[in-house]
Amino acid sequence: MTLYAFYGALEQGFAYGLMVLGVYLTFRILDFPDLTVDGSLPLGASVSAVAISSGYSPFVAIFMACGAGFLAGMVTGILNTKLKILHLLASILTMIALYSVNLRIMGKPNVSLLGQNTVVDWFMELSGLPQYLSTPILFCAVCVLAAVTLVWFLHTEIGLALLATGDNPQMITSQGVNTHTVIIFGVGLSNAMVACSGALVAQNQGAADVNMGVGSIVAGLASVIIGETVFGDRTIFRAIVAALLGSVLYRVAIALALGLKLGAFSITPSDLNLITALLVVVALTAPGIKKKLFFRGAAS
């Protein structure tokens, strides 16, 4: 892998880092399988792109994207808690609905941001660095800030309620906490982070597309699992850092795989989903294989 490709993998890893943190929040903290991600990522991108095209500041556009993502997550939470729809089905319904919502927002399948000022342009002017260096640094700084804020939040009273709701909803209900409100807020917060990631990706690649969220939940889960396998998850801080670094490792692994050539056979971008599935299988089975090898070594 060339150095330029490595910088690109870093950029992608941190650009999607907020999405991975959002997936971690629902998947690990709330124990809520949320497929809304495939719709809320392009939702954030479309809201951001349309807002910038309408003359809003790119920073205001990001906040608007976060608000839209939060509302989308709340819809999933309400469908699950108030209307008693299974969480997986509730998130699928919201994801499907968001496809039409995103088309309505953009008025067409994609919106270009060429010639528009974005946060990437602002940071390049501020830092004076070339784009291949400035974008990874900008997205890394955003992810570190988000990770620190999330660690702090999960140690507050509301954050502890989120943790307890995912671990033991009966216990937290007996303490007088309304788990429905906690779930609605938690899923909303998760999708706000995902939508923020979508806004950053759109501003970085110069366009928002209605299909840019396809496979996002698989990539997010793969990043969380790879991070936990490699770096561990014994504490909240360690698990969040592992999820973030897992996002980078996932993108580096994808870049390495796409550059692989075996004779006349070479891997193309159309094999991306196959590579992702293989990475998840390796990440899930690696701890068990490692444990067996350790016991065999100890027994011999």
From TrEMBL:
Record-linked Pfam families: BPD_transp_2
InterPro entries in UniProt: ABC_transp_permease
Key word Transferase present: no
Keyword Membrane: yes
Regions that span the bilayer: 12-30, 50-73, 85-105, 132-154, 181-202, 214-232, 239-260, 272-289
Keywords: Cell membrane, Membrane, Transmembrane, Transmembrane helix
Main subcellular localisation: membrane
Alphabetized GO MF terms: transmembrane transporter activity
Compartment list: Cell membrane
Membrane topology value: Multi-pass membrane protein
GO CC terms, sorted: plasma membrane
Protein name: ABC transporter permease
Organism: Pseudodesulfovibrio senegalensis
Upper taxonomic lineage: Bacteria, Pseudomonadati, Thermodesulfobacteriota, Desulfovibrionia, Desulfovibrionales
